[in-house]
Amino acid sequence: MASTQKQKKAAPARAKVRPAGFPTRQQVMDFITESEPPAGKREIAKAFGLKGQEKIALKALLKDMADEGLLDIGPARAFHKMGGVPKVTVLRIVDVDDTTLIATPERWEAEGQPAPRIRVVERGKCGALTIGDRILARTEEAGKGWLAHPMKKLAKATEMLLGVVEEMADGKLWLRPVDKRIRKDTPISDIGTAKKGDLVLAEPTGRPPRISARVTDILGDPFAPRSFSLIAIHKHGIPHVFPEAVEEEAVTASKLPLHEDKREDLRHLPIVAIDPVDARDHDDAVWAAPDEDPANEGGYKAIVAIADVSYYVRPGSALDREARKRGNSVYFPDLVVPMLPHQLSSDMCSLRAGQDRAAMACHLVIDAQGKVKSFRFSRAIIRVAAVLAYENAQAAIDGEQDNALLEPALKPLWACWALLRKAREKRDPLALDLPERRVVLDEWGKIVSVAVRERLDAHMLIEDYMIAANVAAAKALEAKKAPVMYRVHETPGRDKLVALKEYLATFDIDFALGQVIRPSTFNQLIKKVGESEEKEQIMTQILRSQTQAYYAPQNMGHFGLALGSYAHFTSPIRRYADLLVHRALVGAYDLELPAPKDKAIPDRSSLSQEDYENMGRVGEMISGHERRAMEAERETIDRYVAAFLSAHVGEVVKARITGVQNFGFFATVEGLGGDGLVPVSTLGAEHFFFDEAGKALQGVESGDRYTVGQRLELRLAEADPINGALRFELPDNPSPRGSPLKRDRTRPKIHRGRPTNIRHIGSSRGKHKKR
Question: Name one Pfam family in it (predicted).
């Protein structure tokens, strides 16, 4: 009996032993299918004890099986069943289904079969993953589909190259990249139907160092209207075309009844929307009036009404999945890539004047000191009295423009804001008044001007009302112990504070690291500087010392605003985080409305269980989308600025140094922006020290010093609209080179690495040498 039991226990081990001798096709298939690690030729040969000529025969057999469609080859020369997925393979994340990431194999060569959509099971090992990421994953079949378990996050592949086709004097074609960080052009091996000057997408072919480009998509004229935005959209992989199902659902959702009898009716109030003159959508409106309650003498009542997007975009719907995938709207000078289809973002969810609209209303009671005494939320129906540009609202208040709403709407709003401003001053949030560039285009998409946006009281008024509503939303949800998608801004880290201290020391400004750091700490620094020339550069350096804000369900406070609890509530048309806060409020305060009769629209508009369970994951994802949008918007502005300045190449302009490195310094044109490099090689033959702490280059013989914030005149040597790059020279240098689109490829190459006329004094080694 004991012997029989031993035999039963030993059986599984023997089952893995393969018969000696050359395997049949079926035996090879069985081994590959059952093998836990990836099975390559070496593993198959070892399993069947093959040697010498048998290995050569195995190679031929495997090739035959691949030709017959029985096998496919994956990464590391591992074989797998044709039509299947390797057990360990490289995947690219291509989509989001609800909160589940969807990936496809990076290499898929099964002829006639579409690449499988594989669900990614995240375990926190790879950090936050998002669309475009590459992962090494273990895969398994599950039911009728596949699952992927990430093992490692891989570097993003530079598969697609975005650039402009250039023809050299010798007739050869090159791809000039649109990313100014890429300094190397790529020879084009296959141009397809593209022609010289086209903006194209291409894929690299060959092996380093002989990489060439094969053009796959023609995007058109890089200087045509909207092309600069298209460059950013393609470069950053921003979803910009809505699937047909999403568009259809938006049309259906836009027809939902408002349920006027079940909403709080606020149509009698002279509520107004105050927005930028070029705003494409209007998702917030405000109203205020003196509080008639004797217990709140000198206080005000206010309403911040926000488009009720959660009523139309419901958890689990196609609209919801697409909105989460986008995370936010992206705003370019010439177009908007909206988070929601136009049927909603520009129509039913846009608070148009004189039209009934569904709104989520935040009712505030503010005392005479500007403190919010109480708040409540309701689903309401509103009719905006007017949509005003900031400039027009300000002109009416200043008495420069007549407006029928001045007495009933604007004056009470300003009077209530005076109270909110009192509370803001007491809180003393971070006050960095840095200029913001605005690109003005004509009706054909051509640049009219690039100017700094004027900062008006009207801007600050709306900002303070929105902050008050955001704080109320966070506190309301906390009171109900409901989930909150917080807007988090943490205290600056020590490393950045040390760097700031060293920087300020170059201006003889002391900054103690041992103190408790508050926003007021930085405000006091700015006051010390006063209106000196260094004010803007010091504010810029303070901004760089701050951490990046993000979304998370864990509350870490908002350092910059000096607030303990803060959530985004006021822009659900353009931010997914706000939509989640609206849903949470609907559930916490029982604001659900009757279910739609159309069964294609989900019943509930409150936060779903899936929303709740995936708050952390979604917070990471939409924070990444926000950073992507900011980078794309900034790069596009830089391209427009370069295009505007391209007509001024050769001219001397007033500039300010924005950054210093060992290879040169960066400068920006005063009032316009756009960073350009002044290479240290153009500063003369003398040696320069790089003072890392002081952010400066200093000539050894002359003592000439170039430091961050310094104002000087420079000649604009080159302005490249394709990649947004500028290049400057000192005015006494030789004449600038020609047009960036006709570069002389015969001129000497600029060698990478530290220039020969630079000595570094920022490190401990440099300081030792100096002593």
Answer: CSD2
Cα→Cα distances 664→530, 706, 762, Å: 29, 9, 15
**CA contacts within 13 A on the Cβ side of 403:** 25
Peptide bond before residue 341 is cis, with ω within 30 degrees of 0: no
Q: How far is CA 282 from CA 182, 217, 273, in A?
A: 39, 36, 7
On the 0-12 / 13-18 / 19+ scale of CB atoms within 10 A, 433 is exposed
Q: Strand, coil or helix: what is 148?
A: strand
Query: Phi and psi of 518, rounded to 5°?
Result: -130, 165
Torsion sign, CA atoms 349, 355, 361, 366: positive
Nearest partner of 324 among 98, 14, 55, 611, judged by Cα: 98
Which range among 452-461, 479-488, 758-767 shows the weakest confidence by mean pLDDT? 758-767
Gap between the terminal Cα atoms of the chain: 87
| Radius of gyration for the chain, computed over Cα atoms and rounded to the nearest angstrom | 31
Q: Which domains does the chain have, with CATH numbers?
A: 25-81 (1.10.10), 88-154 (2.40.50.140), 161-222 (2.40.50), 244-489+550-633 (no CATH), 494-545 (no CATH), 648-729 (2.40.50.140)
pLDDT band at 1 (very low <50, low <70, confident <90, very high): very low
> 370: which DSSP letter?
S
65-99 as b/e: b if 16+ CB within 10 A: beeeebbbbbeeebbbebebbbbbbbbbbbebeeb
**Which tokens sit at 30?**
């069985």
Q: What is the pLDDT of residue 681?
A: 85
Amino acid identity for residue 298 in this structure: G
Return all residues near 423 (Cβ < 8 A) that are at least 6 apart: 369, 370, 371, 372
186 secondary structure, DSSP code: E
267 — pLDDT class (breaks 50, 70, 90): very high
Q: Say whether pLDDT at 514 is over 90.
A: no
The one-character DSSP state at 756 is T
C-alpha 240, offset from chain centre? 14
Cβ contacts of 457 within 8 Å, gap of 6 or more: 394, 397, 414
Tokens of 332: 């370019």
pLDDT tens digits for 102-131?
A: 888 876 655 445 678 888 887 655 556 776
3-state secondary structure of 313: coil
What is the rounded CA–CA span in Å between residue 696 and residue 705? 7
**304 in Cβ contact with 570 (< 8 Å):** yes
Both tokens of 477, joined, read 């949800």
Nearest to 45 by CA among 33, 58, 36, 35: 58
Which residues neighbour 599 within 8 Å (Cβ) at sequence distance 6 or greater?
A: none
Q: Which ranges constitute the DSSP H helices of 595-744?
A: 609-613, 615-645
**C-alpha distances in angstroms, 149 versus 40, 126, 127, 267, 564?**
21, 10, 13, 53, 38
Indicate the helix (H) or strand (E) that contains 149: strand 145-154
Q: What tokens were used for 119? A: 């669900």
- Do β-strands 199-207 and 161-167 pair in parallel, antiparallel, or remain unpaired? antiparallel
Give the helix ranges, DSSP H, for 161-295.
Answer: 227-236, 244-254
> Is 135 strand, coil or helix?
strand
CA distances to 300, 305, 334, 419 from 371, in Å: 10, 19, 40, 8
